[in-house]
Design a protein that fits this description.
Layout: H1 3-24, H2 32-48, E1 72-74, E2 84-85, H3 88-102, E3 108-114, E4 117-124, E5 127-133, E6 139-141, H4 144-148, E7 163-170, H5 173-185, H6 194-202, H7 207-211, E8 216-222, H8 234-243, E9 253-255, H9 258-271, E10 279-286, H10 289-295, E11 305-309, E12 314-326, E13 332-343, E14 346-352, H11 356-362, E15 369-375, E16 379-385, E17 410-412, E18 419-421, H12 427-438, H13 450-458, H14 465-468, H15 473-476, H16 484-497, H17 502-509, H18 516-526, H19 529-534, H20 537-542, H21 548-559, H22 561-572, E19 597-601, H23 609-618, E20 622-624, E21 633-636, H24 642-649, E22 653-656, H25 657-665
Parallel strand pairs: 2-11, 19-20, 19-21, 21-22
Antiparallel strand pairs: 1-6, 3-9, 3-10, 4-5, 4-7, 7-8, 10-11, 12-13, 12-15, 13-14, 15-16, 17-18
Helix pairs in contact: 1-2, 12-13, 12-17, 17-18
The chain binds 2-(butylsulfanyl)adenosine.
Length: 666
């Protein structure tokens, strides 16, 4: 080894040690300026002697070339998730089951549940080789280049072991605040919370972005068999991981009983705000591997661990008004207009009130002080009212009797919670219908935003979607904010949309109960609009995944003479009416919903049925009405009845609502 090589090796070693003390142990041993000076010396030496750049040199963290995409990585050991506990009862239940299975002689390790994203890191002979996201638990994405930029992740371990470890990459609260402040200044969209910011950073193809984001990591498990390393339990394993140079969270605690676990939870519920990073719960694991082995796994999670989730943050604000919107199908939806308030990382000014029943049940009144939270940390929701703070002159909210858009009388169809405007000429409904028709997943016509559509209807340029295709550039440039260029582009986009495959048109027409997936199935099955229009109820419902309700809706839709006329006009303007055989753009297997048939049953508390359905469908799942052998998954809300029993008897996988929300967020 010559002198230069020797110095480079020495600098590598020193910088590893100093970096570990700083980023992993949080106990710097030299001044920052000393570290920087040594790093610059190394950079200079490496520049002059590139043959001595070691792959684990600290200079290799800064982020190299921009990637074209992420490679898929199959996890050698699946990355499972944990089942959840939300209260003491759930935890005592968990404890009881463990006692029943393994007797009295066991103990727990409690850890903080870091709110970031799960990662898996592979080391060969002590050198960091590959890092991946969790993905669907079996197949993740290779984000090695991004992970290398995280200083807390060691590029070389203290021993030359070959090991795969699991942990959480996260963004410290301070970095998150700084990042959002900088984004505010630049007028960029803000991240809702540190978890999203961390995930967003690691999904960038340019590693320089991750490098600039100051992420960190905690490692909490070995992927694979801990016993292979001569270790006999989780606590000992965490010590071993720290010994290898991994950042392991120090706030863990051994707990002999479930009461000790509850004390630990109480402590961290209080101290949570003082931590420099976000946690969303406490993870409780049975310590000894021998016990873990005895307890085993369910399909999705270990029986020897559980995640206690902190309740969602609730804040109080004023209800300023209730806004009513008319949907595409005439349903009137009330929305709470709130005094803007910060909740779970973002400012909330509106929350859906869903329907009249909900407003009545909770007796929500304009001017009330209301409690807000985000269901599953995403969807703002009014939880209730602080009645004691109510203004004396407030009155119960009454839904209007007439449509806020067209003033025709509203009706409530029996058995339906929704109030509807049934006037087929209601401008608001037509506007929503047109917006849906042109939307990305339907006819995909760019340049027809909300304002333009409303203006076109108001000015009488269009009366329905067929009229869109008669629009001329000369007419369009008359509209507000519409120049020659955008008018030309719009006409071109309309022209292009004529060639769409049939399923886009079917979805765009907005036939009740026919979502994107069903439109594809129908188009694929009947191939032409004419054949579908003639399809009979019996024939339709024979198709796998087309239920009675949908079949009936399709038959009724096409029986309507006005619809027949509309279809003729669409044909006349040259819209393609045949299936062109494009594949649905959902990558099967990338999320737990893709390609699955899912049944929702019971009362959902945090999402409406429609929201849940829409989200599942967005991810490529199909929501079916009844449980059968073909059902892959049942989501059971409160008071679920016969469908749940049937699912149990068929051994179909069952999730509760929280699990659903958790999976929707991943
Ligand atoms: S243990 C078999 N420990 O929480 C699963 N998970 O569903 C082992 N998480 O996605 C997970 N902090 O990413 C474990 N101290 C901790 C954790 C933790 C955060 C995440 C993990 C997983 C989810 C649990």
């Amino acid at each position: 080894m010559n002198e230069i090589e020797q110095r480079i090796a020495e600098l590598n070693k020193l910088l590893h040690e100093y970096g570990h003390a700083y980023y992993v142990l949080d106990q710097p041993v030299v001044l920052d300026s000393v570290y920087d000076q040594l790093l610059h010396e190394l950079i200079a030496l490496e520049e002059a002697n590139p043959e001595f750049i070691f792959p684990d040199s600290p200079t290799q963290r800064v982020g190299g070339t921009v990637l074209e995409g992420f490679q898929k990585v199959t996890h050698a050991t699946p990355m499972l998730s944990l089942s959840n506990a939300f209260n003491e009862e759930d935890l005592r239940d968990f404890d009881r089951k463990i006692r029943q299975a393994i007797g009295e002689d066991y103990s727990y390790v409690c850890e903080l549940k870091i709110d970031g994203l799960a990662i898996s890191l592979r080391y060969e002979d002590g050198v960091f080789i590959q890092g991946a996201t969790r993905g669907d638990g079996y197949l993740g994405e290779d984000i090695t280049a991004n992970l290398k930029t995280i200083r807390a992740i060691p590029l070389r371990l203290t021993k030359p072991v070959t090991i795969e470890v699991r942990g959480e990459a996260y963004m410290p609260k301070k970095s998150f605040e700084k990042l959002n402040a900088a984004r505010t200044e630049k007028g960029e969209e803000l991240f809702a919370n540190p978890r999203n910011a961390a995930a967003g950073s690691l999904r960038q193809l340019d590693p320089k972005i991750a490098a600039s984001r100051q992420l960190s990591t905690f490692i909490y498990a070995i992927g694979g068999d801990g016993e292979a390393y001569g270790i006999d339990g989780h606590g000992e394993m965490l010590d071993y991981l720290a010994e290898l140079g991994f950042p392991s969270n120090k706030e863990r605690q051994a707990c002999a009983t479930i009461d000790d676990v509850l004390t630990f939870i109480t402590k961290w519920t209080e101290e949570r705000p003082n931590l420099p990073y976000e946690i969303d719960g406490i993870v409780i694991k049975v310590n000894r591997y021998a016990h873990q082995d005895e307890l085993g796994f369910t399909a999705k999670s270990p029986r020897w661990a559980i995640a206690y989730k902190f309740p969602a943050e609730e804040v109080v604000t004023k209800l300023l008004d209730i806004e009513l919107t008319v949907g595409r199908t005439g349903v009137i939806t009330p929305t709470a207009i709130l005094e803007p308030v910060l909740v779970a990382g973002s400012t909330v000014g509106r929350a859906s009130l869903h329907n009249e029943d909900l407003i009545r049940e909770k007796d929500i009144r304009i001017t009330d002080t209301v409690i807000i939270r985000k269901a599953g940390d995403i969807i703002p929701q009014v939880v209730g009212v602080l009645v004691e703070q109510r203004q004396e002159d407030s009155v119960p909210y009454k839904m209007p009797t007439h449509c806020p858009a067209c003033e025709s009388e509203l009706v409530r169809i029996e058995g339906d919670v929704a109030l509807r405007c049934v006037n087929p000429l209601c401008q608001a409904q037509i506007a929503e219908g047109v917006k849906h028709f042109v939307s990305r997943n339907a006819m995909n016509i760019d340049g027809l935003g909300e304002k333009v559509v409303e203006q076109l209807l108001r000015e009488g340029y269009i009366h329905d979607v067929a009229d869109l295709y008669l629009l001329q550039v000369e007419q369009l440039i008359e509209l507000d904010r519409m120049g020659q260029k955008s008018a030309t582009n719009l006409v071109e986009a309309l022209e292009k949309s004529k060639d769409n495959s049939l399923e886009r048109l079917l979805f765009g027409l907005g036939i009740r109960h026919v979502g994107e997936k069903a439109a594809k199935i129908l188009a694929e099955h009947y191939e032409t609009m004419d054949a579908l229009m003639e399809a009979e109820f019996e024939h339709l419902k024979e198709i796998h995944e087309i239920g009675d309700k949908m079949a009936e809706s399709v038959v009724n839709y096409f029986a309507n003479e006005k619809i027949q006329l509309l279809i003729t006009r669409l044909k006349d303007v040259g819209i393609n009416m045949t299936f062109k055989g494009k594949k649905v753009q959902v990558e099967v297997g990338t999320n737990p919903f893709a390609g699955k048939t899912i049944v929702l049953t019971g009362k959902l508390a945090q999402l409406t049925r429609n929201e849940a359905k829409a989200k599942i469908e967005e991810l490529g799942g199909t929501v079916a009405g009844s449980v059968s052998k073909k059902t892959d998954l049942v989501i059971a809300g409160e008071d679920a009845g016969s469908k749940l029993t049937k699912a149990q008897s068929l051994s179909i996988e069952i999730w509760d609502e929280n699990r659903l929300i958790e999976q929707l967020q991943q």
